[in-house]
Amino acid sequence: MNRLPTHPEAFDHQARQLQRQADAALSPATLARLRQARQHASTTSTPSVWRRHRWWLATACSALLAVPVAMQFNHSAQPPAAPLIASQNVDADADDSLLFDESPELYLWLGSDNLAME
Cα–Cα distances in Å, from 66 out to 7, 61, 69, 73? Predict the structure, then answer.
């Protein structure tokens, strides 16, 4: 069973030893082909697909980010709605929304333990 060494120096030494063994196992013909492929890859001037299309991608991302910002600043300033003032002649029974504001017993009932028992 191979165990990783606990000290960084031992790990480094073991990794270098494994690298030397792997290099020794390769034939000179294989090393020459790998070296030639590496040199060919580094001298090729053809840009990758990512490098060819990076400006289009950057432009598209900028446009996608600019649209929500432009929409946020383009909203027409709508005046706030005028507050509704209840007139004096409105029947109290007709407006059900005032029932909750005028009934403190409702809030006491909601906060009581009896509600959990029902």
Answer: 52, 9, 5, 11
To 5 degrees, how large is the angle CA 13–CA 20–CA 9? 5
**In angstroms, rounded to a whole number, what is the distance separating the alpha carbons of residues 52 and 40?**
20
User: What sign does the CA torsion over 38, 44, 49, 55 have?
Assistant: positive
- pTM of the entire predicted model: 0.28
Q: How far apart are CA 114 and CA 116, in angstroms?
A: 5
Residue pLDDT, tens place only, 64-103:
999 888 888 876 555 566 666 655 555 555 555 655 566 7
Q: Classify residue 85 by its DSSP letter.
A: -
Where do the structural domains in the chain lie, given as residue ranges? 1-44
